[in-house]
Design a protein that fits this description.
This protein is an alpha+beta fold. It folds into two domains: 161 residues, no CATH class; 113 residues, no CATH class. It contains nine helices and eight strands. It has a six-stranded antiparallel sheet with strand order 6-5-4-3-7-8. The longest helix is centred in the N-terminal third of the chain and has 47 residues. This is HPP family protein. It comes from Gallionella capsiferriformans (strain ES-2) (Gallionella ferruginea capsiferriformans (strain ES-2)). InterPro entries: HPP, TM_HPP. It holds the Pfam family TM_HPP.
């Protein structure tokens, strides 16, 4: 089954086209800036690393490696290291891998791992006379400017689509109804501790990991850990059967109290694919319970405390 995300099938044609358009806009602007400062040859080398960044920003805008700090820090600090290696290590055979190695280590320590940063570091070493003549100016123009261009393009292109809001913190996570139920068996702080204990970089935010845990538990036990909360990304049914069945996936919850609004897409029943907005009162009056799609059917989520994991 292909799930519906914000009215667009996840991984479907529309999603791919949006990503492609964003990449075109970002790289078009980056190439124009790079050619102005480096000429065609130098621009070709630098834009390669920006092209890799464009894939992250427009294909996986919610990914941890795609966020503004990894993007900006990854490119800028890698450029600094690359220029330094180019100037201090005369043997290019040593300078190039050394630049990449130091860039990786520094990005790791600064928590701004961005894979295209490695390409930026090596470009500063092997980019030729046009790059070398810029010296540390290379860090500002064109690297910093290009990274800013991609950042602004990603914000602008993704903003029109609630499920793609960039940066990820622009995603609205306000709960429309406050829960009176018990706390989660595990919380965000628990996952942050676990990630720190692993000691390696994992490309996922604590919030996403918590949501994965909740969804996995729902799928395994068909139990709701938050029966009194209308949650973005979850599915709700009118409780009917047959042709009268209707299932809606919540895209966004905005506002609080009587001013709360629910934006949803219809995933089963009449009007499949439609995206609508209604008040919280109207939505809760329509919905009877939360559901999950499992084994080819919609199943009711039982409102019971989720079992603890041992």
């Amino acid at each position: 089954m292909n799930f519906i995300r914000g009215g667009v099938e996840a991984g479907g044609h529309a999603e791919k086209i949006i990503s492609g358009i964003g990449g075109f806009i970002g790289i078009l602007l980056a190439m124009w800036v790079s050619q102005h400062y480096l000429g065609t040859q130098g621009a070709a080398l630098l834009v390669a690393s920006m092209g890799a960044s464009a894939v992250l920003l427009f294909a996986v805008p919610n990914g941890a490696l795609s966020q503004p700090w990894p993007l900006m820090g990854g490119h800028v600090f890698s450029a600094l290291i690359g220029v330094s290696c180019a100037q201090l290590v005369p043997d290019m055979l040593i300078a190039a891998p050394l630049a990449v190695a130091l860039a990786i280590a520094l990005m790791y320590y600064l928590r701004c791992i961005h894979p295209p940063g490695g390409a930026t570091a090596i470009t500063a070493v092997i980019g030729g006379a046009q790059v070398h003549d810029l010296g540390f100016q290379f860090v500002l123009t064109p690297v910093l400017i290009n990274a800013l261009i991609l950042l602004l393009a990603a914000i602008a292109v993704n903003y029109a689509f609630p499920w793609r809001r960039y940066p990820a913190r622009l995603q609205k996570t306000v709960k429309a109804v406050q829960s009176n139920s018990n706390d989660h068996p595990l919380g965000q702080a628990d996952f942050r501790y676990a990630l720190d204990e692993i000691g390696t970089y994992v490309d996922i935010r604590e919030e996403d990991l918590l949501r994965l845990y909740r969804l996995a538990c729902k799928h395994a036990w068909q139990l709701s850990d938050l029966p009194d909360v209308i949650t973005p990304g979850f599915y709700y049914s009118n409780g009917e059967t047959g042709d009268s069945l209707s299932v809606r996936r919540v895209i966004e919850c905005s506002g609080t109290g009587t001013d709360a609004l629910i934006t949803f897409t219809v995933v089963a029943g009449e009007g499949v694919g439609a995206v609508k907005t209604m008040t919280l009162a109207e939505f809760t009056g329509w919905q009877r319970y939360e559901v999950i799609f499992k084994n080819g059917e919609w199943h009711r989520i039982r409102q019971a405390s989720m079992p603890n994991l041992h």
